[in-house]
């Protein structure tokens, strides 16, 4: 595949996007339902492609698990598509309208972004999820998945495109870059046809996209989340929240990586929280003060405070007060999700006001930062930037606005 | 000034931003009123600095006019600040709130972006405007104006910072990069402390920022706007709108650069529209078909269709139908403002649905794309991108959201 092929994909995507943008909601929903059926009907072929990918893949079991498809997982992807069909159409909305002083009627409509680029790792489910969410929101999508999942993604894209064609829909609404070279990925990051590029994956991928791309990017996913246990915290609640945020699914971005604890309760609380974490196999690292309380905590290095482990590891710091906790968080967090456990009204308010993050929790686990848990019914990623979308992104994050202005001959004085 | 000094400015700005974000609306308004008074009190010194800048400046009269300050213009800038004080505080808002299935109360609050970077040309008024809008929205601002206005900007920033200090407010809420080197400008585009960088100025400046910056950018201002005169258009309305959009203020981004006209009315309408434009000194360029109707129109080259003249020049194209007009616009526009003049209901609808631009007008001049004309009471720029803000940006464009979540011990199942 050449750079010119990529440009052609962009042109084709723009054309498909304009067609999708004019489609009514019922049509889009019916397309999604048919795509789901055809996806399930293609299970045998999809499985065969996935087996081929698996035979070439590295042996890291976490990696393998993300790459693996099963008939059940394919059925789940189809169910996800049917679920997207039931969600409200984010582009069927006029946000607001008003008449200006010159008598113009100005309406602020929600419209699709146009062409969405997705760049992600070896997770074939992202291929189907992104296709469904983009189609529902009236966007064409160009997908560039990890090389290890290439055969699976090619087959998935083939099934979806065939289904669109059969339905009389422009198949270029869903396109896959079937060349996994880095050179082409870089060209993708400069592709003018893209209205937005969304990277999904590890910190390395995201940073490469942010540094390279000249098209607008929505940064997602890096999560160095903290739980701060205040002096007024209920101990059992603190244990429950810290353990849940750390161990319930340690590989994801909304799990907690750091524990901060107020020095006045550290001697009492820390041994109990540490024991609870260790009973779930968590490796503990910590500062000097925490190691004075629980002596076999591994010394944390400066690097630990900025590291997202995505693993059963947690670093602990004893802080003298609320403001120190906030200052530490603002200096080291990724602006994703932060939590305080407290019974102090003023401390809760101060924490929520001063911590700079997409989601700031009082007395709850950071694991709730998720499009489904928030009630959005879908998720295209979790934005860690402040522009356009912040926090869990549902269908609405795939739209922009258009001012539609109706006059009767107005000119500017 | 060194890269390290710039990093220190970023750190100072972050600190100031956190203080501003906690300030109540009345305090911010009172600060703005005092800033306006002190600005007027500094008129003599500001004028002296501006005279120094003028003595060094190039001779292009358009350029000189933008650089020039007068006591009246300083009074206008002060009046603008007082006007900003009367606007609603965009961060005093909770957009919405709900309880999720786990019983968490999730509130979506409006919060300041944090640190705003502005990079602009030799227009000292942008220094004051941006400072006022950022302060009102709770953001710290780092300003980097054109080198030709350096003395003026230094004096303006000095007056504003002194005033803040006198009022007991952290003066680092308003900082100016007093070194106009390109090397430092480039470092500014990578400054991690920036939550957003907004370039204001010509297409070259904006493209340089978009290509260089690794911090989030909001593209502003490039405007290659079209007026399409449909076959059903009222001739007099078409003349009024085309003339207004072209000549009322040709140097700005929302003025029209291109005229498209339906072939079935071209022979009748074009000579009259051309005569009206020429009576205002407009140079006409055009395609073959237009030159067959008005023979002394200068031949347009391919480059004309993509050029923003910012001058009394207009290029004309005769199109066979509405769809050709829309296709031409979508291929050449800058996604800014486009207009149709028509009395045909279906044509109006199709044009507004299919043209990809921030503002799509029926029967009105594109010159209305403006924060004040829209009723926003202020304008920090006009976004031509689809992310975060699109079209005229008022105070709200300088905010983001924060999810503030209150629970009573919820953990994820």
Can you put this structure into words, describing what you see?
Chains A, B: It is found in: Cytoplasm. Chains A, B: It comes from Lacticaseibacillus pabuli. Chains A, B: Residues 2-282 form the Aldehyde dehydrogenase domain. Chains A, B: This is Gamma-glutamyl phosphate reductase. The structure is a homodimer of 413-residue chains. Chain A has 413 residues and is of the alpha/beta class. Chain A folds into two domains: 3-219 and 385-406, Aldehyde Dehydrogenase, Chain A, domain 1 (3-Layer(aba) Sandwich), CATH 3.40.605.10; 225-368, Aldehyde Dehydrogenase, Chain A, domain 2 (3-Layer(aba) Sandwich), CATH 3.40.309. Chain A is built from 14 helices and 16 strands. Chain A has helices at residues 3-21, 25-41, 43-56, 61-67, 71-86, 124-136, 150-166, 182-188, 203-212, 235-247, 263-279, 288-293, 322-332, 345-354; strands at 94-99, 105-112, 115-120, 140-144, 174-176, 196-200, 225-229, 256-262, 283-286, 298-299, 313-319, 337-341, 359-364, 381-383, 391-393, 399-410. A seven-stranded parallel sheet of chain A has the order 10-9-11-8-7-12-13. A four-stranded parallel sheet of chain A has the order 5-4-3-6. A three-stranded antiparallel sheet of chain A has the order 1-2-16, with no helix packed on it. In chain A, strand 4, helix 7 (150-166) and strand 5 (174-176) form a beta-alpha-beta unit. In chain A, helix 2 packs antiparallel against helix 5 (71-86) and helix 5 (71-86) packs parallel to helix 6 (124-136). The longest helix of chain A has 19 residues, at 3-21. The termini of chain A are far apart. Strand 16 (399-410) of chain A pairs parallel with strand 13 (359-364) of chain B, so a sheet runs across the interface.
């Amino acid at each position: 595949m050449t750079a010119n092929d990529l440009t052609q994909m962009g042109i084709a995507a723009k054309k498909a996007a304009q067609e999708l943008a004019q489609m009514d909601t019922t049509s889009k929903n019916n397309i999604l339902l048919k795509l789901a059926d055809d996806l399930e009907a293609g299970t045998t072929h999809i499985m065969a492609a996935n087996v081929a990918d698996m035979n070439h893949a590295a042996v890291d079991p976490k990696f393998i698990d993300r790459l693996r498809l099963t008939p059940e997982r394919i059925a789940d992807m189809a169910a996800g598509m049917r679920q997207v069909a039931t969600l409200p159409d984010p582009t069927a909305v006029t946000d607001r309208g008003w008449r200006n002083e010159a008598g113009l009627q100005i309406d602020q409509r929600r419209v699709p972004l146009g062409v969405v680029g997705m760049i992600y790792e070896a997770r074939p489910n992202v291929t189907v999820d992104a296709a469904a969410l983009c189609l529902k929101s009236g966007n064409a999508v160009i997908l560039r998945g990890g090389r290890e999942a290439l055969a699976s993604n090619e087959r998935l894209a083939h099934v979806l495109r065939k289904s669109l064609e059969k339905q009389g829909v422009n198949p270029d609404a869903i396109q896959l870059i079937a060349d996994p070279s880095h050179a082409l990925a870089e060209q993708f990051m400069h592709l003018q046809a893209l209205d937005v590029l969304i990277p999904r994956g590890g910190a390395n991928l995201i940073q490469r996209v942010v540094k390279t791309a000249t098209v607008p990017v929505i940064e997602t996913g890096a999560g160095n989340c903290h739980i701060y246990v205040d002096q007024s915290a209920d101990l059992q609640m603190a244990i429950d929240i810290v353990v849940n945020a750390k161990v319930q699914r340690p590989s994801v971005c909304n799990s907690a990586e750091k524990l901060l604890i107020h020095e006045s309760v550290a001697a009492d609380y820390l041994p109990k929280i540490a024991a609870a974490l260790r009973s779930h196999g968590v490796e503990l690292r910590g500062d000097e003060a925490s190691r004075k309380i629980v002596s076999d905590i591994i010394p944390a290095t400066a690097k630990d405070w900025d590291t997202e482990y995505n693993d059963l590891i947690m670093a602990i710091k004893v802080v003298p007060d609320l403001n120190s906790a906030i200052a530490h968080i603002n200096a080291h967090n990724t602006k994703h999700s932060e939590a305080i456990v407290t019974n102090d009204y003023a401390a809760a308010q101060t924490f929520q006001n001063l911590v700079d993050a997409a989601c700031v929790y009082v007395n709850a686990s950071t694991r709730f930062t998720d499009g489904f848990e928030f009630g959005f019914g879908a998720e295209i990623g979790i934005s860690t930037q402040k522009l356009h979308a912040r926090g869990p992104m549902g269908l609405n994050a795939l739209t922009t606005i258009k001012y539609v202005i109706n006059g009767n001959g107005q000119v500017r004085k």
